[in-house]
Amino acid sequence: MCMLQITATISYIMYPTRFEDIDETVTERNSHCTRPSKNQNVPSGRPCVVYTMPLLYGTQDYATNVDPDTIIVCKDECWLNQNKPSDPELQELFQILMEENNLEIMSPEDAFKTYKSLRRLALQALYA
Question: What is the pLDDT of residue 1?
């Protein structure tokens, strides 16, 4: 299995769980307020407000403006953000192997176990 196939397999397996984990972390982090500190360089408040409205905390906005068209082009070119590998034949093979072997992804731990099983099965299917 070449590196592209391995990357495609990882992308196919991990996609659903990685964004759920990130969203859960953001929600948890923004559900509380950080307490004031003796260190005046450390802001207190809700993390999302501190990040999006730095002027309220006596600092400047260090964000860099990016042309929206550039963002669209980058998203279109980034195949890892898709819920499928770039190769449609690999996509079909992974789907068939998951259905035939009753492989499911219920958690990040399941995703890693499924990746290992799917990789082994794909190697057998491709080189048998």
Answer: 45
Contacts for 91-98: CB closer than 8 Å, 24+ residues apart? 91/12, 93/122, 93/125, 93/126, 94/9, 94/12, 94/118, 94/122, 97/121, 97/122, 97/125
Which of 94, 91, 102 shows the shortest CA–CA distance to 122?
94
pLDDT of 12 above 70? no
| Amino acid identity at 102 | N
Give the predicted TM-score (pTM) of the model: 0.39
Structure tokens of 4?
């592209």
CB 8 within 8 A of CB 88: no
